[in-house]
């Protein structure tokens, strides 16, 4: 699948974002190695710490359906390139280390490797 198409799916998923507190609306589309796409959006809560980011929403949906191998995740938040937060990077790392992270603003697409954004994860260091 073209990353442009994956981003378009993330853009559509963003429409369901529930972000009344931050007003920062995020959509994601997670492509599995088997070719399926799981969408996600951020789901905020009055108890802020209960907020679920769009990336972890998509990953939980996929893993709950038996998918654990991913090839790419597209993240779309509108105006600005938005990278997954540290918790989401760690969550992605748990399942796939060589995943492409596809970011975009309204005009351009940038593709990173997970390792570019998180060179060292929370693992025991010798
Ligand atoms: N957020 C995401 O869903 N994904 C990101 O990559 C960045 C941040 C959400 C969490 C919160 O609902 C809002 O954006 C502001 O941080």
What does this structure look like?
It is a single chain. The protein is of the alpha+beta class and 126 residues long. It has one domain: 3-Layer(aba) Sandwich (Cytidine Deaminase, domain 2), CATH 3.40.140.10. Helix content is 29%, strand content 22%. It has a five-stranded mixed sheet. A hairpin with a 4-residue loop joins strand 4 and strand 5. The protein is globular and about 40 Å long. Bound molecules: tetrahydrodeoxyuridine. Tetrahydrodeoxyuridine binds next to helix 2. The site of tetrahydrodeoxyuridine has 15 residues, from helix 2.
Mean pLDDT: 95
Ligand list: tetrahydrodeoxyuridine
Q: Strand sequence of the main sheet, in spatial order?
A: 2-1-3-4-5
Helix content: 25-40%
Number of strands: 5
Query: How do the helices and strands follow one another from N- to C-terminus?
Result: HEEHEHEEH
Strand fraction: 15-25%
Name given to the CATH architecture: 3-Layer(aba) Sandwich
Number of helices, counting only DSSP H or I runs of 4 residues or more: 4
Largest sheet composition = 5 strands, mixed
Low-confidence stretches: none
Estimate nothing, just give the exact number of structural domains. 1
- What is the CATH topology classification name? Cytidine Deaminase, domain 2
Alpha-beta classification: alpha+beta
CATH C-level category? Alpha Beta
| Termini separation | 39 Å
Shape: globular
Radius of gyration, taken over Cα atoms and rounded to an integer in Å: 14 Å
Short description:
With 126 residues, the chain is α+β, with helices and mostly antiparallel strands. It has one domain (3-117): Cytidine Deaminase, domain 2, CATH 3.40.140. The protein is built from four helices and five strands, in the order H-E-E-H-E-H-E-E-H.
């Amino acid at each position: 699948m073209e990353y442009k198409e994956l981003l378009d799916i993330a853009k559509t998923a963003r429409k369901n974002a529930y972000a009344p507190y931050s007003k920062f609306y995020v959509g994601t589309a997670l492509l599995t190695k088997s070719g399926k796409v799981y969408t996600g959006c951020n789901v905020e809560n009055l108890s802020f710490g209960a907020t679920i980011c769009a990336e972890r929403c998509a990953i939980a949906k996929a893993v709950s359906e038996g998918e654990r191998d991913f090839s790419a995740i597209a993240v779309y938040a509108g105006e600005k390139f938005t990278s997954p937060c540290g918790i989401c990077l760690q969550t992605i790392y748990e399942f796939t280390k060589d995943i492409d992270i596809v970011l975009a603003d309204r005009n351009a697409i940038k593709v990173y490797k997970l390792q570019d954004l998180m060179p060292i994860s929370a693992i025991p260091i010798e």
